[in-house]
TrEMBL record:
Keyword set, alphabetical order: Cytoplasm, Disulfide bond, FAD, Flavoprotein, NAD, Nucleotide-binding, Oxidoreductase, Redox-active center
Name of this chain's protein: Dihydrolipoyl dehydrogenase
Cofactor(s) required for function per UniProt: FAD
NCBIfam families: lipoamide_DH
Cofactor binding description: Binds 1 FAD per subunit.
Family to which this protein belongs: Belongs to the class-I pyridine nucleotide-disulfide oxidoreductase family.
SUPFAM superfamilies: FAD/NAD(P)-binding domain, FAD/NAD-linked reductases, dimerisation (C-terminal) domain
Length: 466
């Protein structure tokens, strides 16, 4: 006999979402977590990183206060207070963790703290205790990748896990960020805005966000970072890092030649890998892919072992908290026999919280053409947008990719509050709306969202301000 309807192994976004959603449906749930509920996203990733990005935004705003008509005392110079920023960040994390723990308790989810292991019968063993469910959901998460020659010590050579939980008294004066993807771009933005001499090294041809958004959008971010002081090096091959008395020596090669930089700190942000090898899943009959992910049926999130689901960073889908939420709902609904609609991974919302922010949903222009679509593209800059000018944040672009005489295929944004603006595009892409339909909707004035409306209108061959 099962003790619970569902046993969840892992308390990150996918795990706690599955537990909360299942409990709200009246199911009996046990949740196993080896550290604290909330996982990487709450404690080492999304939330603390965005809190630090906001600290950088406030610092940047204060530095430009005079341009907005705010007079500061003569001789005033804003300085970043790294310990205070980290203290505020920790307070936010603590409050959210407390709220999440309380919600799990109110939903009567049995939270078991300990290192869980999947057994052959599908149950989960935790410190000698066995939890048996009618179904088990694996949500074992991910950890930062590391490669030989970049040995992490947590002080001079760090990952994002260390950067979001810094105990240092101050920021480094000079830093290298290895990897220009989402994590690397966000920390390069933080460091640059807080006055750190920052060099970004990316192995691919494009130095910033080489995979993901449309190049027109990514290039706006790269230009903005460069203008603010980030030194971006594409096609950079990094050699073995050498510790020195003053920091770390970083040797690298680009098409321009070989260089060596001595910096105080190196942030290694070359992606994350799934945690699947230490939970007994393979021994219990769950197939694992060559890349280390649990193999799942994406229409149900079931693994190769009957009654065992897997969701989140440990499966080969986009490693995003909101994707894990969606997969949690899908798995629970399937368990309930409700035949849910699978997640459409090609149309999910993506956000990079740099300055300026980048967000997108759907196909890039290049992807749409490669897929054989007869593509029509229109773009609209934030440079003439009244609200953007008021904010003093005019670096930005809206790019809409649509099929000729057909629906919106993709929307790509870079600019102020792109993280909030992009959901209109997400809805348009997923509902296969025509640009003319979106263009007829009224956008408030003055607002940043007007840039979206005006871009949609231009597909008619007419325009307002553009």
């Amino acid at each position: 006999m099962a003790d619970h309807d569902i046993v969840v192994l892992g308390g990150g976004p996918g795990g706690y979402a599955a537990a909360l959603y299942a409990a709200s449906a009246g199911l009996s749930v046990a949740l196993v977590e080896k550290e604290k509920v909330g996982g990487t996203c709450l404690h080492r990733g999304c939330i603390p990183a965005k809190a630090l990005l906001h600290a950088a935004e406030v610092f940047r705003t204060v530095e430009h206060a005079a341009a907005h008509g705010v007079k500061l005392p003569d001789g005033f110079k804003a300085e970043p207070d790294w310990p205070a920023a980290n203290t505020r960040k920790a307070g936010i994390v603590k409050q959210l963790h407390g709220g999440l723990s309380g919600l799990l308790k109110r939903r009567k989810v049995q939270v078991v703290i300990g290192e869980g292991r999947l057994l052959a019968d599908g149950s989960v063993s935790v410190d000698g205790q066995t939890l048996k469910g009618k179904a088990t959901i694996l949500c074992t998460g991910s950890v930062p990748r590391a490669i030989p020659g970049m040995d992490i010590d947590g002080e001079r050579i760090i990952t994002s896990d260390h950067a979001t939980n810094s105990t240092a008294d101050k920021l480094p004066e000079r830093a290298v960020v290895i990897g220009g993807g989402v994590i690397g771009a966000e920390f390069a933005s933080v460091y640059t805005d807080l006055g750190v001499d920052t060099t970004l090294l990316e192995a691919m041809n494009d130095g910033v966000l080489p995979i993901g958004p449309d190049r027109d959008v990514a290039n706006v971010l790269a230009k903005s970072l460069t203008k603010r002081g980030t030194k971006i090096n594409a096609q950079a091959r990094v050699g073995t890092l050498e510790r020195t008395s003053n920091g770390v020596l970083v040797p690298f090669e680009t098409p321009k030649g070989s260089e060596k930089l001595e910096v105080e700190q190196v942030l290694v942000s070359i992606g994350r890998r799934p945690v699947t090898e230490t939970v007994g899943a393979a021994e219990a009959g769950v197939r694992i892919t060559d890349r280390g992910f649990f193999e799942v049926n994406p229409t149900t999130m079931l693994t190769s072992k009957p009654g065992v689901y897997a969701i989140g960073d440990c499966v080969p889908t986009p490693g995003l908290a909101h994707v894990a939420y969606a997969e949690a709902v899908l798995a629970v609904d399937h368990f309930l026999g409700e035949n849910p609609v699978p997640v459409d991974y090609a149309k999910i919302p993506w956000v990079v919280y740099t300055h300026p922010e980048v967000a997108w949903s759907g196909l890039t222009e290049a992807q749409a053409r490669e897929a054989g679509h007869d593509v029509v593209v229109h773009k609209h800059s934030f440079a003439g947008n009244g609200r953007a000018m008021i904010l003093g944040e005019t670096d930005g672009l809206v790019k809409i990719v649509a099929a000729k005489d057909g629906p919106v295929l993709g929307m790509h944004l870079v600019g102020p509050w792109a993280s909030e603006l992009m959901h209109e595009g997400y809805l348009a892409v997923n509902w296969e709306a025509l640009p003319s339909e979106v263009g007829r909707l009224i956008h408030a004035h003055p607002s940043l969202s007007e840039a979206i409306g005006e871009t949609m209108i231009t597909f008619s061959g007419r325009s307002l301000h553009g």
